[in-house]
């Protein structure tokens, strides 16, 4: 089967070729590539590691009430399993897996028509993005595939809504555990 190079992913200082067959991609092959890129099996010199041998902060009660923001919200909305107009949505990592399996079966033209909210330049990556998100949550951070979590696009602050992003989430976690 001939593969068509669609582009590159850059992660952790490494460049990975992103390719797919014209007829679609293999969920399991994409997942294996993401596991490799995340270095999930890297040696861990700490008590608990997430990926790449990096300490995961110890987990604990904070991991039971997860808030996930930014690109996770955007891809979930584009994949159609949350309402893009909602401020928050409840999902499970398995929702990303199911969406990835659907997206990976599609060729680029079918993906374009199935995901009209995705910018044309990003359509070839919808499969890989969803696989990456699922794998990062489950293999990278050790979140149970059935654990409910909250996707957040914007959070209320004073009399406005502020774009939710990981630095804000990290600050909230630090402030709430004090």
TrEMBL record:
Annotated TM spans: none
GO annotation, cellular component aspect: membrane
InterPro entries named among the record's database cross-references: GDA1_CD39_NTPase
GO biological process, one term: nucleoside diphosphate catabolic process
Alphabetical keyword list: Hydrolase
Pfam family for this entry, one: GDA1_CD39
A GO molecular function held by the record: nucleoside diphosphate phosphatase activity
Family membership noted in the UniProt record: Belongs to the GDA1/CD39 NTPase family.
Protein name according to UniProt: Apyrase
């Amino acid at each position: 089967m001939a593969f068509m190079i669609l582009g590159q992913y850059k992660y952790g200082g490494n460049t990975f070729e992103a390719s797919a067959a014209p007829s679609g991609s293999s969920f399991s092959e994409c997942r294996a590539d993401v596991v490799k890129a995340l270095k999930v099996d890297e040696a861990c010199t700490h008590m608990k590691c997430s990926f790449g041998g990096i300490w995961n902060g110890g987990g604990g009660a904070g991991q039971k009430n997860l808030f996930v923001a930014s690109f996770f919200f955007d891809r979930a909305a584009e994949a159609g399993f949350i309402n893009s107009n909602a401020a928050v949505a409840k999902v499970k990592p398995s929702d990303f897996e199911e969406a990835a399996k659907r997206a990976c079966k599609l060729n680029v033209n079918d993906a374009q028509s199935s995901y009209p909210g995705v910018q044309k330049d990003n359509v070839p990556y919808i499969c890989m993005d969803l696989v990456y998100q699922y794998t990062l949550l489950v293999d990278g951070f050790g979140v149970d595939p059935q654990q409910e979590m909250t996707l957040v696009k914007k959070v209320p602050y004073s009399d406005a809504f502020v774009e939710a992003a990981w630095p804000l989430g990290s600050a909230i976690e630090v402030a709430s555990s004090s």
